[in-house]
Amino acid sequence: MGHLRIDGEHLTIKDVVDVARNGLLVELSQEAVSKIKKSREYVDSLVEKEAVVYGITTGFGKFSDTYISKEDTKALQRNLIVSHACSMGNPLPEETVRGVMLLRANALAKGFSGIRLETVNTLLEMLNKGVHPIIPEKGSLGASGDLAPLANMVLVMLGEGEAIYKGERMPGREAMLKADINTVELTSKEGLALINGTPVMAAIGALTVYDSLNIIKTADIIASMTLEALKGITDAFDERVHKARGQKGQMITADNVLKITEGSNLTSRQGELRVQDAYTLRCIPQIHGASRDAIYYARDIIAIELNAATDNPLIFSEDDMVISGGNFHGQPLALAMDFLGIAVSELANVSERRIERLVNPQLNDLPAFLTKRGGLNSGFMITQYSAASMVSENKVLAHPASVDSIPSSANQEDHVSMGTTAARKARLILDNVEKVLAIEAFAASQAISFREGAVLGKGTRRAYEEIRKHVPPVENDRIMYVDMDKLDKMVKSGAFVKAVEETLGELE
After folding, report:
1. Is residue 162 a contact partner of residue 212, using CB atoms and an 8 Å limit?
2. Cα–Cα dist 138/420, whole Å
3. Which stretch of DSSP H or E encloses residue 217?
4. CATH 1.20.200.10 domain locations along the chain
5. Tens digits of per-residue pLDDT, 468-496?
C-alpha cells in the first residue's frame, strides 16, 4: 500500500475512508513542509520580540487580555491541553479517531497554524503506527471547535492520557514507548494549533456521509425488491413524470428503480391490477430523491471542510499578520449534519411503512406475516415491531442540535454550534436506518419466495441472490435476529450495491 501525501488542499472523503478504515499511510508533501516551516519561523520571531498576539503570548478565551511572557510559553501550552481535556463518555471508535488525526494534520499542513514540523510529524507517526488516543465522545460545543476531545488526543502526544495500541488500551506514554515514538513538549502556539478546529465533527461527518452515499443506493435497491414483491406499478417511475418536476435526486432515484427492476415479470402497469399504488411505493423517487439531494449537500459541505484552516489565530507570514477570526465555529457542519440526520431518517421511515405493506395481509395478497402456517408461526410479525422501534428512536434523534447554543468562557464565546453533537446524532440515526433497511430486505426476499414463476429484474435478481447466499427463506419460525444481523452487515458493507452494480454498472 502506498502513501497518501497531504498538503491541506486536496484531501477527499474517499481519502479519509482509506486512512480511517483501511490503514493507508500518510505523509506531508514537500510543499506542506515548506509552508509549515515558514509559518513556524514567523511565530518564533513574534515570541522573540514579545509581541502581544492571541494564543501565542496571551491566555485563551476570556483570558485573552492576559499577557504571557516568553519564558512561560511552554507551560502555557501544556496547561492548555491538560485543562481542556474534559471530554467524557464512551471512546470514539478507532476509525473516527484516525479520521480526526488525519484531518488535524491536513489542516496544519496548510501553513496557517505556526506549529513545528516535528510536532505534526509526531501526530502522523502515531497515525501510521496505530497509536490511537482514547477520545471520549462527549464534551465539544463545536466552537471554539472541538477543544475538549482534541485535547484528549494531544495528551497522548505528551505522554499522558490513554491510547489503544494493537488492540490494547494502555497509558499514553506506554503506547508511545511501544510504538517507538518520541513524545513532544509543546511550545508557543502549538497546543492551540492542535485543539482549536473542527476535525472531530468533520471526521464523523466524512465517514457518515460516505456511508450515506452507500445507503441511498441500497435503499433504492431494497425498495425495488419490495416494489416487485408487491407487484408495484412502474408507470410512476416514468422519466417524463420526473422531468416534469425537475428535482435532480428524484430523477436519479426513478431511473435507478427502472434499471434495477428491468425485465421483471412481477411489476405491473397502471390499470392492470390497480390504478395506482400507495405512496410508499409510488413516491419512492420523491422521498428517496429528496434524501439523496440532502446527502449530496452534506457531502459538498464536508468536502470543503476537509481542506479548511479552522484554528485561531491564523498566521499569514507573507503579510506579516496574525488574524484572530472564527473559523473554528462549526456552524456549516452543524446545519449540514442536522440536515443529513433528518434526510437519512426518512429512508427508514418509508422503509418501515413498506415492511408493514409486506407483512399485513390487509394490504397485499401474500400469506399473513409472510408465513405459510400463521398462528402456529408468527413469521415476520415482530420484525416490523423492531423496525418501528428504531424509526421512533430516530424521530427523537433527528431533533436538530444546531438550534441550541449555550454561552461559554464567561460569555466571550457566546454562540456555539453544537456541530459535533449533530454529527454524532447523524451517525446514530444512520445505524438505525441501516438496520431498518436490512429488515425490509429480509421481508422483501421472503415475500418474493412466495411468488411462483417469478422472474426478477436485472438488479433485484442479483440482490436476491446475494441475500440467499447468507439467509435462506423462513419455512418455520426461527431465531430471527441472527438473520437480521447478517443482513445489517450486508447493508453496511455495501454488498447490495456491489452485487447490483456488477450487473448494471454504477448507479448514481
Report:
1. no
2. 9
3. helix 199-229
4. 205-309+336-404+418-504
5. 999 999 999 999 999 999 999 999 999 99
With contact defined as beta carbons under 8 Å apart, do 346 and 291 qualify? Answer: yes
Among 54, 210, 296, 464, the active-site one is 54
CB of 82 closer than 8 Å to CB of 195: no
- Secondary structure tally for the chain: helices H, strands E: 19, 9
Q: CA nearest 478: which of 328, 366, 354, 377?
A: 377
As given in the structure block, the three cell numbers for residue 298 are 452534506
Sign, CA dihedral 250-256-260-263, equals: positive
Phi-psi sector, 130: left (phi>0), alpha (psi -120 to 50), beta: left
The C-alpha cell at 126 is 502515531
* 368-377, long-range: CB < 8 A, 24+ apart: 370/443, 370/446, 370/447, 370/450, 370/474, 371/474, 371/476, 371/477, 372/475, 373/476, 377/476, 377/477
C-alpha to C-alpha distances, 215 to 174, 208, 211, 426, nearest whole angstrom = 40, 10, 6, 13
SS3 letters for 441-496? Answer: HHHHHHHHHCCCCCCCCHHHHHHHHHHHHHCCCCCCCCCHHHHHHHHHHHHHHCHH
How would you classify the pairing of strands 3-6 and 25-28?
A: parallel
Measured distance CA(56)–CA(103) in Å, rounded:
23
- Every domain range in the chain assigned CATH 1.10.275.10: 3-197
Q: Could you confirm whether 54 is annotated as catalytic?
A: yes
Within its chain, how far is the Cα of 154 from the centroid? 23
What does the alpha-carbon distance between residue 241 and residue 282 come to, in Å, rounded to a whole number?
12
Q: Give residue 110's pLDDT band: very low, low, confident or very high (50, 70, 90).
A: very high
Question: β-pairing, 136-138 with 88-91?
Answer: antiparallel
138 forms beta bridges with: 88
- Model pLDDT for residues 44-99, shown as the tens digit of each residue: 888 888 787 777 777 776 677 777 777 788 888 899 899 999 999 999 999 999 99
Distance CA 46, CA 316 (A): 12
Q: Provide the 3-class DSSP secondary structure of residue 168.
A: strand
Name the more confident of 411 and 98: 98
DSSP string for 288-352: HHHHHHHHHHHHHHHHHHTT----SSEEEGGGTEEE---TT--HHHHHHHHHHHHHHHHHHHHHH
Q: What are 194's three cell numbers?
A: 492542535
Contact 120, 104 (CB under 8 A): no
- Domain 3-197: CATH superfamily is Fumarase/aspartase (N-terminal domain) (1.10.275.10)
CATH class of this structure's domain 205-309+336-404+418-504? mainly alpha
pLDDT band at 11 (very low <50, low <70, confident <90, very high): very high
